[in-house]
């Protein structure tokens, strides 16, 4: 019976070609987030350095000629993690979980100028959310205004409150996002946004309902804008990898909030450096807070080979600036191995200096891949 089920699955999947998801895989034109992340996974439909599973599933796709609908394609993102956590004066814990099972479906129409996107993380489980809409990562209609600009209606990629918070699972260099990244705006919300990608500048500007993951509409609005400058694009290789960005968010949910963020990155040959600072007078990420908070991180990665990289990060976060003991520091070191452009394995060691003057040591093992 198992062999029969497996054969049926293979026969079905042979007729589905992996699609170029905006946050994960580059399409014919790089998206704003792909410019920001500097992680290139390639167009899987044309890429040679991909896993055998992808090669099997990309032979054919549901494509239509002389039709308003041009194509219907899908893929699935997986993430699994193992975590060993030792906290001072407490028992050690070990946790194994399948962190992400995310089917995605994209329908293109209007001569490939427009698309309908839907993907859902079946394993996501946020507390205090009243329905299952928090499992939906994307549900939107988009239209390419021209070769540089796109308009998106619905719940698109993560809000651009901070650079790190906007990254998708496959774009992250570390198992965990930075503390500011996973606190400020690391969530989706329904609205209308305009993204643009030009030679010297990328931008993302939008107006959203302040409810996250379509849980309960009508409590307020968010305005979010992000700009990334690439001033040395035409200069020598030694400096053309320098970028600076800034984001601003203003909104109201249970309380009013305002955030600023500043980002800088430098890429040269095998070396990749990033730093980001964010300040919040209240925030509305996965969870809402009226705290005055701030965070900063700086990270470095070095490519030993095209597939193997060493990574390190210093990460500081103050969850409440009115309390002197609310600060948490994290020190991360690790290795990332990209077996294929759609598959990677990560090992991270994280030491956390906690607000109560204790500390913890974590070892995290993660695998992320797309089929």
What does this protein structure show overall?
Strands 2-3-4-5-6-7-8-9-10-11-12-13-14-15-16-17 form a 16-stranded antiparallel β-barrel. It is globular, with a radius of gyration of 21 Å. It contains 5 helices and 17 strands. It has helices at residues 2-13, 32-37, 52-57, 163-166, 179-183, and strands at residues 62-63, 69-87, 93-109, 114-120, 136-144, 149-155, 190-197, 201-209, 221-229, 242-252, 256-268, 271-284, 288-303, 308-318, 327-340, 343-353, 359-370. The longest helix is centred in the first third of the chain and has 12 residues, at 2-13. With 371 residues, the protein is mainly beta.
Gist of the model:
This protein has 371 residues and is mostly beta strands. It is built from five helices and 17 strands.
Radius of gyration, rounded? 21 Å
Q: Which regions are unreliable across 5 or more consecutive residues at pLDDT < 50?
A: 1-47, 53-60
- The CATH topology comes to Porin
Secondary structure tally, helices:
5
Oligomer designation: single chain
- List SSEs in N-to-C order: HHHEEEEEEHHEEEEEEEEEEE
Number of domains: 1
Reading off the top of the CATH hierarchy, the class is best stated as Mainly Beta
Average pLDDT figure:
80
The major beta sheet can be summarized as: 16 strands, antiparallel, barrel
Query: Helicity range of the residues?
Result: under 10%
Q: State the secondary-structure class.
A: mainly beta
The percent range for strand residues is: over 45%
Largest sheet, spatial ordering of strands: 2-3-4-5-6-7-8-9-10-11-12-13-14-15-16-17
From the N-terminal CA to the C-terminal CA, the straight-line distance is 23 Å
């Amino acid at each position: 019976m198992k062999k029969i089920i497996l054969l049926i699955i293979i026969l079905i999947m042979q007729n589905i070609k992996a699609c170029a998801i905006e946050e994960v895989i580059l399409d014919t034109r790089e998206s704003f987030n792909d410019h920001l992340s500097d992680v290139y996974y390639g167009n899987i439909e044309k890429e040679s350095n991909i896993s055998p599973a992808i090669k099997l599933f990309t032979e054919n796709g549901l494509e239509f000629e002389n039709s308003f609908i041009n194509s219907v394609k899908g893929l699935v993102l997986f993430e699994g993690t193992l975590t060993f956590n030792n906290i001072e004066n407490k028992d050690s814990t070990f946790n194994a979980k399948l962190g992400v099972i995310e089917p995605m479906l994209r329908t293109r129409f209007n001569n490939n100028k427009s698309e309908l996107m839907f993907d859902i993380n079946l394993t996501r489980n946020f507390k205090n959310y009243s329905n299952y809409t928090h499992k939906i990562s994307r549900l939107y209609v988009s239209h390419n205004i021209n070769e540089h600009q796109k308009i998106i209606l619905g719940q698109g990629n993560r809000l651009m409150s901070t650079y790190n918070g906007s990254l998708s699972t496959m774009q992250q260099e570390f198992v965990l996002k930075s503390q500011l990244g996973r606190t400020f705006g690391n969530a989706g919300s329904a609205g209308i946004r305009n993204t643009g990608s030009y030679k010297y500048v990328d931008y993302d500007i939008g107006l959203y309902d302040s409810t996250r993951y379509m849980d309960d509409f009508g409590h307020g609005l968010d305005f979010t804008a992000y700009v990334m400058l690439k001033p040395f694009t035409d200069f020598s290789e030694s400096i053309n990898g320098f970028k600076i960005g800034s984001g601003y968010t203003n909104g109201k949910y249970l309380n009013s909030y305002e955030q600023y963020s500043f980002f800088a990155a430098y890429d040269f040959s095998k070396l990749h450096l990033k730093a980001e600072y964010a300040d919040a007078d209240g925030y509305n990420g996965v969870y809402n807070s009226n705290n005055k908070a701030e965070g900063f991180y700086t990270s470095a990665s070095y490519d030993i080979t095209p597939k193997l990289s060493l990574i390190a990060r210093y990460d500081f976060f103050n969850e409440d600036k009115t309390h002197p003991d609310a600060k948490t520091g994290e020190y991360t070191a690790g290795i990332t191995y990209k077996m294929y452009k759609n598959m990677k394995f990560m090992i991270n060691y994280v030491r956390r200096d906690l607000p109560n003057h204790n500390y913890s040591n974590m070892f995290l093992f993660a695998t992320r891949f797309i089929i």
